[in-house]
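Loading example: each entry is read as three labelled lines plus one structure line.
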Amino acid sequence: MARKNGWRGLLGALLAVALAVGAGCGGGGQGPADGLSGTITVAGSTAMQPLIEEAAEKFMEKNPDVQITVQGGGSGTGLTQVMQGAVDIGNSDIFAEEKEGIDASQLKDHKVIVQAFAVVAHPDVGVDSLTKQQIQDIFTGKIKNWKDVGGRDQKIFVVNRPKGSGTRSTFKKHVMDGKEEARGDAEQDSNGTVHKIVSETPGAISYLAIAYCDEKVKTIKIDGAAPTERDIAAGKYPFWSYGHMYTRGEPTPLVKAFIDFVLSDEVQQGIVKEMYYFPVTGMQIERRP
Amino acid sequence: MNVRTKDKVATCMFWLGAGCVVVLLAALLGYIVIRGFHAIDLAFLLGEPETRRAGGGIGPNIFNSFYLLFLSMALTVPLGLLGGIYLTEYARQNAFTNFIRLSIETLTSLPSIVVGLFGLLIFVSMFGLGYSLAAGALALTVINLPLMVRLAEETLRTVPDDLREGSLALGATKWQTICRVVLPCAIPGLITGIIIAAGRVFGEAAALLYTAGMTTPHLNFGQWNIFHPTSPWNPFRPGETLAVHIWKVNSEALIPDITRVADGSAAVLMLVVLGFNLLARWLARRLGRRLAGS
Amino acid sequence: MDRNRFRFGRAVRRELAGFSLSFIAALLVIVLTIAITVFISWKGLSVFFVHHVSPANIFSLDWWPDRPPEQGGPQVGILTFLVGSILTSLLAALLSAPLGITVAVFMTEISPHLGRRILQPVIELLAGIPSVVYGYIGLSVLVPFIRENLGGTGFSLLAGVLVLAVMILPTIASVSTDALRALPRSLKEAAYALGATRWQTIRLILIPAARAGLLTAVVLAVARAFGEALAVQMVIGNKREIPHSILDPLITLTSGITMDMGYTVQGSLWNDTLWFMATILLAISFLFILTIRVFIGRGEAR
């Protein structure tokens, strides 16, 4: 009996200490009453996640009473959860209108970045620019050898991206002009793996987010335009998409403040560019769903 | 070829087969540990993961793995033990008991991705936990519970019936007998089993992708208010475990040193699982000896 | 007297509490099983009830979930995924079963001492290696090896089968060992007394006698292979097509689910099709359990 009571006492003491410490910390953490406070949850596109995380960290440094949680899960998850009201912001690689099962009229679109992609090939194919038509013919299986587009006599090895990924929808819409690709010789989800296959397989062609384009793969120009800020902003280079932050209806002041922060020059000219995205603020053209 | 030669050939074949398996394990372990060796240093073990620069660590991921393991074990062990007690001490040979056994078998053979999806549906969405350690712990509990019940049942069955009868004859109630006689006898076996199970849970990834999530907020180890979003102890924050991290780094990472991080993480994961196994073995021998001695 | 009664009452209360707690824990296992079955199939079967896809369509090869209706879409045939899962898991079991059973025989008949001292821990450790680690080794060793020596991208049926074969080896070995150990000694002694060699005893007496247990081992292993997700997904290439050779990439049910779950919107046809795939996984694991029960029943009847 005595031993048991001892246990209870100890447990009680521990609890009391934990509570006291918790309360102490909670109290200490409270800053001045002015400024923003509250929590924001963000979920969605895994591609946008690192950027938004970093922006959130900067925002929290400036506003110590704000807590932002950034989760991944994919564009579909982001849109679903913002529709359900489970999160405040849903990140998506593509327009909500293009996702089956989403009532886009309930959502408010905030375009925050431009993500560019590039058609890439194995370095030894002997081609560094293709026309849109040639790319379409390669991916629909009409052209099967690099020599038919002015390169080496080498069979073309097509690496596709899975349906459903934002990269693939953008490719299909803006490069293939809606044409259905042939099944290809391989299909890979992740940028890292696609980069690995293209750099190691002779004759390989695929497409990647430009953050992954380095000297190990050859970045192919489309109709002579390169995936640079200038060509994209001028509307010459077609293979890009927006990164969207969706809110359900009008954002609350706090959420709006965060989105405005992401759109500010500090973020747009800073971490956006560092992460190989382009500022949405510099675009001379605008796309609609 | 006569029967004796055939017998010799067959024996050689069996030795070869056994040898193959030993070599296989040695090769796997050797590969992971040697490759990971160069990646592991203190900065790697304690550092935060980087999203785009080289030099990231896996500190929060290691913490998440252990904390999640603790959370799920805190649920699984009592529940599994009670389930095992029911099956050994109370259950009769009837349809209900048979149904329990069928359920255990079914749960054991469920693919962990299915459990993960169930977690997404129920714990994440329906309970409103979101991607969180709590949801992850519940999913892991679903995976681990049937194993724990079975482990508890098998261990409790090894306790000789004489002991139970003796205790009951001395006037103890059934529950007293279970708590004071049966359980203490079974403890060495239980501890060993629990540690081995812990090793398995530690490496689980598929069930956690859609429950515990693939992100970790910026953790502040000075934050002791466990409901604060940056508190490492907050069970309602998302947390990417080490195993999930290996998967994510390989499939979608912008960092230039993917190989280093993946090698290092795999080695750490492997060493921890190995550690759990060795610990279980060592404890089994020690506790077994002490019990036999006393 | 009073004090005694008080004690007695508390003992009874504890007795009751103990019984109810353990009963509830046991009941929880049943509740969980039912909940998983009901919720997963409720989501999965909505392809029929909400989206009105016909069973013939869902078990077809046409996978065009993103095609607009004017081009004949959306089509959500999952046959490619199902065939992929069946191919990888069966081939893996085919490769792994002989080795696993060899090891089991070694542990029980050839050298029980070495078996206990060395092989038992080795198999336990193999079983303990996390599946992502298997996947990672497959990705960094097996895939480049196949690409350089056999051709293709390396992401292939072969890579998936090899990774799975190693992963299920411990299951086959340990369940077979249990089956062989459970055989009565008299069987073996009788065979030796008749002058049979060890090989003859193993081949003609022990393995046939343990057949039910060995089959159970293989079925359990296939079940494990069938449900494995991440390790397989990392090495098979995930191309939505039925492979024509072992060097072709392919896709399985599990990797189909992990790849598309995040991209798709809850409640859409595509997303519900993924839940249907999960329902299929569930149904197949029920099937495996049933098969094992039949085997064991038959084994006992003998």
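The beta strands of chain C are 63-64, 75-76.
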